[in-house]
Amino acid sequence: MAEQALRRVLRLPAVTDMVGLSRSSIYARIQAGTFPSPIKMGHSSGWIESEIQEWIDRQIAVTRNTS
Question: Is the predicted pLDDT of residue 20 greater than 80, yes or no?
Answer without folding.
Answer: yes
